[in-house]
Design brief:
The complex is a heterodimer of chains A (about 110) and B (about 120). Chain A is mostly beta strands and about 110 residues long. In chain A, about 0% of the residues lie in helices and about 50% in strands. In chain A, a hairpin with a 5-residue loop joins strand 5 and strand 6. The termini of chain A are far apart. In chain A, about 40% of the residues are buried. The model of chain A has no long low-confidence stretch (mean pLDDT about 90). Chain B is an all-beta fold. Chain B is globular. The model of chain B has no long low-confidence stretch (mean pLDDT about 90). The chains are: A mainly beta (about 110), B mainly beta (about 120). At the A-B interface, strand 5, strand 6 and strand 11 of A face strand 5, strand 9 and strand 10 of B.
């Protein structure tokens, strides 16, 4: 079945460092891909999305490109801030409407 | 819009008791999802509804769990009897489309502790 695999955390970075969180997926056809963010004590919020191959989703300085050839959707940010500390989830949706999540990657940004 | 509203935010109950979690989706959304989040298992989809009809309940762990959606603005997740291993954060989410939706909006979650 469909699945999402993320790099394991926690990831600890200094402020203004470059961030990459890897995400790969397994799915037949052409799923839509998402990154969600969860701040402590809160629900998940959509960060960005891409619905077809080569699309780039972007929001709040974060970017991810839908790579069909490598079945990947890696999250990047050029300069992280302390306020970016959170758990990040990669997800996909496919036929039938189920939203399937990766295991989440905790990011901690130190001043 | 107030977003997806879940109640209660926190619930502490004794093993064997019945627990009911409630969810009000965003008005106009016709898909609703129940997720469970634990450290060990991450985020698991328990069940989802389209237009108030359960579409996939394969994630419901066992018969102790049941979910209903009597109308478009309300859903419940019930655990009877509850067990300590049910302790988790339960999220409800809704989406504006049925098949092939593009994103889901999550509530704040209900933190359940079964002692």
């Amino acid at each position: 079945g469909d699945s999402v695999t993320q790099m394991e955390g926690p990831v600890t970075l200094s402020e203004e460092a470059f961030l990459t969180i890897n995400c790969t997926y397994t799915a037949t056809g052409y799923p839509s891909l998402f990154w969600y963010v969860q701040y402590p004590g809160e629900g998940l919020q959509l960060l960005l999305k891409a619905t077809k191959a080569d699309d780039k989703g972007s929001n709040k300085g974060f970017e991810a490109t839908y790579r069909k050839e490598t079945t990947s959707f890696h999250l990047e940010k050029g300069s992280v801030q302390v306020s970016d500390s959170a758990v990040y989830f990669c997800a996909l949706t496919h036929q039938g409407g189920k939203l399937i999540f990766g295991q989440g990657t905790e990011l901690s940004v130190k001043p | 819009d107030a977003g997806v509203i879940q109640s209660p935010r926190h619930e502490v109950t004794e093993m064997g008791q019945e627990v009911t979690l409630r969810c009000k989706p965003i008005s106009g959304h016709n898909s609703l999802f129940w997720y469970r989040q634990t450290m060990m298992r991450g985020l698991e989809l328990l069940i989802y509804f389209n237009n108030n009809v359960p579409i996939d309940d394969s994630g419901m762990p066992e018969d102790r769990f049941s979910a209903k959606m009597p109308n478009a603005s309300f859903s419940t997740l019930k655990i009877q009897p509850s067990e300590p291993r049910d302790s988790a954060v339960y999220f409800c989410a809704s989406s504006p489309r049925g098949q092939g939706y593009t994103e889901a909006f999550f509530g704040q979650g209900t933190r359940l502790t079964v002692v």
